[in-house]
Amino acid sequence: MIIFDCDGVLVDTERLSNRILAEQITRAGHPMTTEESIRRYKGGRIRTLPPLIEAEFNLKLPDDWLDQFFARQFAALEAETQAIPGVSDVVDQLIAKGTGFCVASQASVAKMRITLGRSGLWDRVEGRIFSADMVERPKPFPDLFLHAADTMGWPARQVTVIEDSTTGVRAAVAAGMRVIGFCRDTNPDELRAAGASDLAQDMAGVSVLLGLL
Fold it and tell me: Tens digit of pLDDT for each residue in 55-85?
């Protein structure tokens, strides 16, 4: 079985979301670029960030800071989300071969409904969606991947995870799963160091590693 991360693997949203996050932190009083936000927070959970941001930058965030962020993020996602080039072909190949697959993301189902819907992928993955909201501990703990595999009826040793963040790679390794590090926008050395056994620069490379071509 194949488990896809969502942001940065299925949909090209990492830069978009981190742009909004950097703007929100800058508005709160600490100047931050999109690149710094990606470096610091890629693969994490937004809901866990406010106390970390306050402590690290000596800020007091407004009580509605998260609400402001999600409102701006969802509006941007509705307008700008695009699928990662070639990912529709990979998913269609899996469907044609009868290969089991699902999506397991730190994101909420509501967010994935927007991003996967906007990118034209929702109909292909509906009913195969797993969010960190469904488990006690998010990535880098293995809970989400283990929950997804168990629900889909597959043992961890027969699962391959496609991840673009070191947080996600560590979670998959902890779950005892094979990991393909998707390094389109991530340093491949960092993914390898986190435990990825293989690397792919694009979806054509993913297809080769999955034996679809």
Answer: 999 999 999 999 999 999 999 999 999 999 9
- Predicted pLDDT at 45: 87
Nearby residues of 66 by Cβ (< 8 Å), 6 or more positions away: 46, 47, 50
Domain co-membership, 98 together with 179:
yes
Domain range for residue 65?
14-80
Same domain, residue pair 180 and 86: yes
> Over the chain, what is the mean pLDDT?
96
State whether 49 and 138 are in the same domain.
Answer: no
Same domain, 111 and 197: yes
